[in-house]
Amino acid sequence: MKTLTLLFFGLLLCPMPLPAQTAEILLHNSADALSAGKDDYAVSLFRQAAAVGAEQAEMFYWTNVEKNSAAAPRVVHELAVYYKDKRNYDKAYLFYKEWLQYYPEDVPGLVACAEMQLMRDEAKDALVLYRKVLALDADNLQANIFLGNYYYLQAEQKKKALEDSYKKIASPTRMQYAGYRNGLSDIFSNGYNKAKGYLQKVLQLFPSTEAGKTLERIMILEKEMN
User: Fold this and answer.
1) Of the four listed, 82, 178, 206, 226, which is most buried by Cβ atoms within 10 Å?
2) Long-range contacts of range 97-105, CB-CB < 8 Å, 24 or more positions apart?
3) In this structure, are residues 166 and 159 in contact, taking their beta carbons and an 8 Å threshold?
């Protein structure tokens, strides 16, 4: 009897956990909250729904959320962050891009979208996005780092290709040598020099050792060119 009594009180003190709500219930309640104008509560419920049923939450956004409502971009942002955290970069990019439909000049949104494109091996599109970031915020550290490294690596590749091609000429003429030097000059002007500007900005914003080393290599090349 004593054992049964202890068991009874043990159950009272340690109640069984309630079953987790399904995505359907959470989204239904989110819809009710949106209708009642309780956006904060609706978004909170939507966040929970995405965690247990992301695809259902997506469909809810596309079919149940008024796109001109104040809650719409908040819901989109929840999906973008959820998929980024899950490393589903295709879906994260889709929803960051959707976010930018609402706020096309939002710098954090543009940076996040560019990050997703890098993870998707879409460097050229990331370049466009980071340029837009700098047009809005010239001191954005992440954009300056990316553009500095991008132009530096592009210049390195072009320089190597030019040098490899020139080395294949057994006895270059003066005209061929002049063409080679002009090619190097063009690569420096349109590649290394652009990288130099962005990396100098990086060092103004943050004491980056790597940016400093890259700048040193560019300075050495500049002396060689002259």
Assistant:
1) 82
2) 99/73, 102/72, 102/73, 102/76, 103/73, 105/136
3) no
CATH of the domain spanning 141-225, picked from 3.30.70.2190, 3.40.920.10, 3.30.450.20, 1.25.40.10:
1.25.40.10
Which of 13-17, 80-84, 85-89, 194-198 is the least confident region? 13-17
Domain 22-136, CATH 3.30.565.10 — does that match?
Answer: no
Has residue 14 got a pLDDT over 50? Answer: no
Do 22-136 and 141-225 agree at the fold level? yes
- For the chain, which residues make up each domain, given as ranges? 22-136, 141-225
